[in-house]
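Justification of computing resources. Each target in the renewal requires a structure prediction run like the one illustrated here; the chain below, 109 residues long, is used simply to show the kind of job we budget for.
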Amino acid sequence: MTDLNLPEPIAAYFAADRQNPDALARCFAAQATVKDEGLTHTGQDAIRAWKAAASARFAYTTEPFALDQDSGHHIVHSRVTGNFPGSPVNLRYRFRLERGLIASLEITA
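Resulting structure tokens:
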């Protein structure tokens, strides 16, 4: 991973991505939301299931390379490479943090 100064819950999210859906879900607040591929997943159980399903469908790696802030959100730009159509792709991860956890995440191209 590029040497970015990511806030702790975001760094933990990328460390757990693909490898450990349970650890990834613990990065989120109890009623957090994730928006990805036109769907919204609410709560840690739904987020865990979303990540487990994505990890089962595709093998991929993420490499965050830039961090911006906008209106209280942390926006991480990451290169995602794997065995999915259109690979590699640069994605934007828009995080909102609350009390040391991820309250919302929106992933877009």
